[in-house]
Amino acid sequence: MTAIHLRPATSADSEYCFQLHKAAMGAYVTAVWGWDEQAQRDFHARVFTPDRWQIITVDGTEAGMLHVEHRPTETYLARIELHPDHQGRGIGGRLIRGLLHQARRQGRDLTLDVLAVNQRAQALYRRLGLHEVNRHGENNIKIRMSTKPPRPGPIHGS
Predict the structure, then answer these.
(1) Crossing angle, helix 14-32 and helix 37-47, to 10 degrees?
(2) In this structure, are strands 74-82 and 109-115 parallel, antiparallel, or unpaired?
(3) Can you list the residues of the chain whose pLDDT is less than 50?
(4) I need a surface site. Which of 4, 35, 96, 156 has the fewest CB within 10 A?
């Protein structure tokens, strides 16, 4: 069985996390906004918070990153990115199942946002029991998903 571990990110992981984001999410970012290298580097500089991020290792090799926020009423999966070399191997599913189990034990829902163009991630989240709650952002580019059962009726953007 593949050994998956999490280690705290450090400031030295900044470039790794930027390159990971480019490899894992570049096509989706390009589809929505277009890829502007400097704009993406500026965005990364603003959001990279090593004290909140974790590096995913698989059999001792860096494979991705994880950022989870434990909020009063929910566990929010702020970001999970796996390098394409490690996608499709069940790693993300195993990590998210662990978060689902932890959230249930704490009486919380697991919630996340996913880009509407990222069909592959949405399919994974649905298989794991998450439901679309709403769409938001400019032109509804993001989908909020949660373990909380959806309310009856049509889903509207907010």
Answers:
(1) 120
(2) parallel
(3) 158
(4) 156
Residue type, 144: R
Length of the chain: 158
In a domain, 157, yes or no: no
- Please give the residue range of the domain that contains residue 62: 4-146
Burial class (CB in 10 A: 0-12, 13-18, 19+), 45: exposed
* Residue reference for tokens 């009063």: 72
Residues 6+ apart with CB under 8 A from 43: none
What is the total count of domains within the chain?
1
Q: pLDDT at position 149, please?
A: 76
Structural domain contains residue 153: no
CB 93 within 8 A of CB 124: yes
| Measured distance CA(75)–CA(98) in Å, rounded | 12
Write down the pTM of the prediction. Answer: 0.91
Has residue 133 been placed in a domain?
A: yes
Question: The tokens 């990364």 sit on which residue?
Answer: 44
Identify the bridge partners of residue 131 per DSSP, sorted by sequence position. Answer: 146
* CB contact set of 132 (below 8 Å; sequence gap of 6+): 143, 144, 145, 150, 155
Q: Identify the CATH number of the domain in which residue 33 sits.
A: 3.40.630.30
